[in-house]
Design brief:
Blueprint: H1 2-17, H2 21-24, H3 30-48, E1 54-56, E2 68-70, H4 75-84, E3 92-94, E4 104-106, H5 110-120, H6 139-154, H7 156-165, H8 171-180, H9 200-225, H10 233-239
Antiparallel strand pairs: 1-2, 3-4
């Protein structure tokens, strides 16, 4: 907490001092853009790769010679993923307390979490940014999305080639290192955020990854118990009004 307070104090001092906007706003580099485009593409393909849906391609063919194709191998999946990929970057926030490309991450930044806690405790926080705008998309994240739109359109054929022929290869290496950043700085691709204890962004990302797995395990456990595992009627009535305390949901993403 002490580090977070110090970070928040430093932020307030910088804002109070004003200064050149070009020093305060540092737009994402091409390496950062490609890195997170690749991250979200991999995530989107993983999410859409779990279905067993089969598409009947005979529809629309007068001779009926079309054939069935798995959704996971279809053009529809590729189109749906690429058309919506850049919108996913708007879920990111700016974490100025982090260095390098790690400044872009989902979840509330450590600094703004501290500022929010101060406000909730009744402390008057005076900033150039109105409280109502704390949750708005930052200039850096907006530009991240804008550059993503250009990149996906420009390298559409490369993404399609990976999808059809090279899915066993790492997408960051194939798309970014081998094509988008070929002959340019690729150092940001190797930057990893290990997280800190209590880091809301890291906790939020871990929880989102575990959420689906926990639901599946719970469903299998409930099915395995069956009727033989039911408690006596009297005990069931006693426990019918007791509910397990629901876990707190992650607060809406704030930005810095």
């Amino acid at each position: 907490m002490a580090a977070a307070v110090a970070s928040a104090a430093a932020l307030l001092l910088l804002m109070a001092a004003g200064g050149d906007d070009s020093e305060w706003v540092r737009l994402p580099s091409k390496c950062e853009v490609c890195k997170y485009v690749a991250v979200e593409l991999k995530s989107a393909f993983e999410e859409t790769g779990k279905t067993k849906e089969v598409i009947d391609t005979k529809y629309g063919f007068l001779d009926g010679k079309g054939s069935a194709v798995k959704y996971t191998q279809s053009d529809i999946r590729l189109i749906e993923v690429t058309e919506n990929i850049c919108k996913r970057l708007l879920d990111y926030n700016l974490h100025k307390e982090r260095s390098g490309s790690n400044r872009f991450a989902k979840g509330m930044s450590e600094t703004f979490e501290t500022l929010h806690n101060l406000v909730h405790k009744g402390v008057k926080v005076v900033m150039d940014i109105p409280y109502e705008l704390w949750n708005e998309t930052s200039a850096e994240v907006a530009d991240l999305k804008k550059q993503c739109d250009v990149l996906v359109e420009e390298y559409e054929d490369v993404i399609e080639d990976w999808y059809r022929h090279h899915q066993t290869e790492d997408l960051s290496q194939f798309l970014c290192a081998n094509h988008v950043l070929k002959g340019k700085d690729t150092s940001c691709l190797a930057e990893k955020w290990t997280g800190k204890k209590g880091d809301l962004a890291s906790v939020g990302e871990r929880q989102s990854k575990k959420k689906s797995g926990k639901k599946k395990k719970k469903g299998r456990k409930d099915e395995s118990e069956g009727a033989d595992g039911l408690p006596p009627t009297g005990k069931a009535l006693e426990e019918s009004g007791v509910q397990e305390e629901a876990p707190l949901t992650h607060s809406p993403a704030d930005e810095l």
